[in-house]
Structures
1.
Amino acid sequence: MKIKQNTNTNTNTNDANDTGDANDAGDMDNVNHPTPNPTRIDSQLIEDDSDILSLSDVRDTHQLHKSAIKRVIVTGVTGQDGSFMADYLLKNTDCMIYGTVRRLSVKNYTNIHHLKREPRFKLINLDLTDDYSIREAITEIKPHYFLNFAAQSFVDGSWDYPIQTWETDATAILHILESIRKFAPYCRFYNAGSSEEFGDVIKDPQDEEHPLRPQSPYGAAKAAARHLVRVYRESYDLYAVQGWLFNHEGTRRGKEFVTRKITHTIAKIKHALEQDKKYDVLKLGNLDAQRDWTDAEDFMSGVWLMMNQDAPKNYVLASGKMNSVREFLQETLKCANIKHKIIGDGEYEKFLTEDDKLIMEVDPKFYRPAEVHKLRGDCTLAENELGWTRTYNFKKLVKRMYESDYEQLKNR
Ligand code: F7E
């Protein structure tokens, strides 16, 4: 077990050039700054003023879509899940979507750039650590659905900034629930839950009955939020759910997460090898960790199904298959057509090309103070009761991520 050194003075878990994180709350460097009015036009926030809603814009769209069109607030819309959810809703419903963004010193709208001219997609300011902005958004928009994908979602980082993790992933949920209870009790609320809540598992695979045994500040905050969601559901008869989403990956995954770190770095190495150039070696932590890796886009239909049942209920979304970090790397190398050999083990394990060029080495800096060794979900309930299905398996997912990274680098 490693004792984690808190050397990170910058709490920004996102690379400025990154494509965004799964449940991206992005950098929190503005936590102590005054939060702007969520409905105020903010020309700094986006490329031009017309992209963010003013108060009168919100009222206009209410007028425009008075009763027929449902309004959905999607937080974390610049991250992987939020942006895929927005895409899913635009494609499969006629809802009006209000994506929320937080003031960032380094803006990152890569994942929603394609929605810029979409008339059913609007951006508003909302900061999860400011209950005033949550209340404003709920009272002004009067949403039919509130889908919360914003979070401090990087498990490893939750040891470095546990308070921020708690405020964003637990306290903020209480503020959302309170605002919904007081001002929009008809609003259906979804909070992104995590397999990390199961943590130190006692049964394989894990289903909805598995006890919560979180191993990180992140897992503990999500578990606390789960209890709050249940308490509010039962106390006030709210439609409030928190699905257990196992690891979900894709082309919009943040590069600090192991899957995207692997596909992106191997794509860079592949280009370098093709051009006989120097490259940075891939450095990883625990190669033995096993996860249930599923495609993030496949999860969005599951979330929407969860939100549209007769009664609220929490479901596990997963694939039921488990692979190690090492297997993810091997599969990526297969996609890149890089033949490799492995030498050493534990901290000394290395991946080399056939002609002895170093590809990957273990760096204990990426070990966690407490590791969740294995997670595999049992999604039988979601399949049987929601009719939820998936289109991508592990191999297709790795291929999709690697090829996307390889192409993006080629076009640079
Ligand atoms: O780590 C190991 C690491 O950071 C996966 C989030 O979406 O899924 C995600 O959390 C595994 C761990 O994701 C490196 O120790 C080895 O065992 O990609 P990850 P995560 O921690 O599983 C859950 C369901 C969420 O809810 C979270 O929000 O990979 N690992 N070497 C590494 N991990 C990272 N990040 N970097 C490495 O170099």
2.
Amino acid sequence: ASLELGPYSHFMQKEIYEQPKALSDTIEAVLDAGFAMQLFGENAEALLPKLTGVKIIACGTSYYAGLTAKYWIESIAGVQCDVEIASEYRYRNAWADPQHLVVTISQSGETLDTMEALKYAKERGHQYALSICNVRESAIPRASELVFYTRAGAEIGVASTKAFTTQLVALFTLAVTLGKVRGRVSAEQEAGYLDDLRHLPGSVQHALNLEPQIKAWADKFAAKDHALFLGRGLHYPIALEGALKLKEISYIHAEAYPAGELKHGPLALVDSAMPVVVIAPNDSLLEKVKSNMQEVRARGGELFVFADADSHFSESEGVHVIRTPRHVGVLSPVVHAIPVQILAYHAALARGTDVDKPRNLAKSVTVE
Ligand code: G6P
């Protein structure tokens, strides 16, 4: 294993650091072809123009990629999108519109619940499915009409990292492509989105360089029993993913909330023993997030804020700030996934857990 690991201590660490490359590899075909339907397979030109909606189905981290995609698909493509947890969807009498594209997201392509949910969607009347998958010729892409392979390379750490960020760029590509098909993306906007993709690996590299500062936070977290993650809009799913990573590998209880929902429950939990992580880049909801943060401070909660330079936060009593790369527009969730991965990784190291093989969890869940 040490040969494969090179300079890294764990596969998870290696995979976190491989993200600029994994993203460049995944984006390469898009930069070459533009947001072209053929990126999704031979049948795409025949199928994509007919679609009137999207239903995303996945588990775990892949499900959170789906939640992020909903924002992109509805705002960029102007298409209705719902996101389903596979193990829930397959056991309810779900309403199906044959014109809605089923999109499964799976790193392994073998997750049983996702595979069964795909079959169930077909039984319910969905006609077409797109698989976003990291493993070529695995079960789920084989059962799908359309496929987009992420090019993250083998992911060995049980907790998904590079598969997640490459799934995000695949889904962003889908959103822009659908937007083009529907005449909602101008040539100028398309060029802008391509530019955003082109600059993404560089911004992710910047985020990786924050490791020493994030490690200092993680050492504080390691002594805590609970943590709360907050975000809004596009960054709410990143808060969810941050909480999931922390739970999975450090065994610290963590939950995530959309910050506007604080006052409907979790605010009752806030005190000085509960660190509150906030994903707060300069987007349209920043002012709202700032007032949510004041609600936390007023209850004695300690804030750990990931904010870009344009967010204009400064450190103060009980407010710690790490500056993420300059705001990168709609791809900002991809960049902000990095610091929460690193936070979980170092909290786990500080607690001495088995980072690559957390207790009770499996990389690929092929049983129910
Ligand atoms: C397991 C892994 C997670 C992963 C989930 C879905 O729970 O530990 O990291 O997100 O399965 O896996 P998939 O291969 O379908 O993306």
